[in-house]
Amino acid sequence: QVQLVESGGGLVQPGGSLRLSCAASGFTFSSYTMSWHRQAPGQEREVVAAITSAGGNTNYAGSVRGRFTISRDNARNTVYLQMNSLKPEDTAVYFCKALGFQSYIRTYWGQGTQVTVSS
Hints:
7-stranded mixed beta sheet; 4-stranded antiparallel beta sheet
């Protein structure tokens, strides 16, 4: 059974930091591109950051570049999102996604974790 279990969300003050974790199981994590996405109420889901299977390449949305860092630990089957200098507009549900290309495309999603940035 494939699972992506997220943790680390919560309430934080503007300017503060959070680290999200996504623990994967049930598939070959090291073969999958991992990404973080977020969705605010009334808004489209958007990609925040992505990292290739070996961690050699990362990409970020312009709104978070310089503040957020995606990383992965293939030995622990875990992907992280370090979020610094948080702003109220970062408030959203954050989702972990796995994307793999075997004989066909496989996509898995986590359950989402709430991040609220408010004073």
